[in-house]
């Protein structure tokens, strides 16, 4: 099934789309212009907050061309886990009255489960297994070393979220593969 692609130029545009579609659609890919284009676009935080208001969540980002990328959003599943940040954003949005009934229901459901960040430090250091794997691949290590702190932290946390040792090992291999290719997106 093809995911609907929508262009939004402001936070209000995305909110209007969600008002009309949050209950009948389950996914959307927002076409976002990169900064160098000089075109107006909402920030990730603004888009995420609007999604939270309707019980939706951001998922992946995929490059389209040199000027645009797709930021995917989807309706939260009944058992989806929230991050500490998204719970905090939802609390703030609730206080200022921006949450919709769908968003409030998703938020209340999210409060009943531990977050997917549970027990993971906000700024973890490089896990030993990842350090060993990168040390065996010179190109991957070179690329990984050049990543920003936030990209490194994203990779560390992704590995640390694995519940099983087998999953964690697969994620370490995937991080090395992505780093070797110079890619920053999981």
UniProtKB/TrEMBL annotation:
Pfam families hit by this protein: OmdA
Organism superkingdom: Bacteria
UniProt name for this protein: Bacteriocin-protection protein, YdeI/OmpD-associated family
Source organism of the structure: Candidatus Nomurabacteria bacterium RIFCSPHIGHO2_01_FULL_40_24b
